[in-house]
Design a protein that fits this description.
This protein is mainly alpha-helical. Helices cover 50% and strands 10% of the residues. 12% of the residues are buried.
Amino acid sequence: MGYAWIEHDFTVLFTPTYKLVGALLRAKRDHELERELRHLDTFQVVILDDLGYVQQSREEMEVLFTFLAERYERRSVVITSNLVFSEWDQIFKNPLTTAAAIDRVVHHSLIIEFGKDVKSVRAEEAARRNGMVLAASPAVQNAEG
């Protein structure tokens, strides 16, 4: 999706969530959070990869929430995560912050959820390198057949 937006002249930042959070934390420590948020605002789309993959501290999640709140209804954010919304309390630690983050993320959103039956692109590539064939899930077989 990111490449397609770039081809249509959108400015896109693709980053692992932990890197964005680290940059925001450094900016907050240096009293430059507003400047960093303005810099991120120059991107029409920010793609955050692997939200929730690495457990983060409360302070880290506070700057992530600030980022999401700042972009809310103004700029686009794409989030990839292995966690369903009911597990986002593991990310934001506080029920109110979790609810507020989910509220901002889902409002005006298109949510694409992949179930357990979806084949992993990485697993398929590894299997090809090793001369193996992965069986397609019933959902994939129905789509192909």
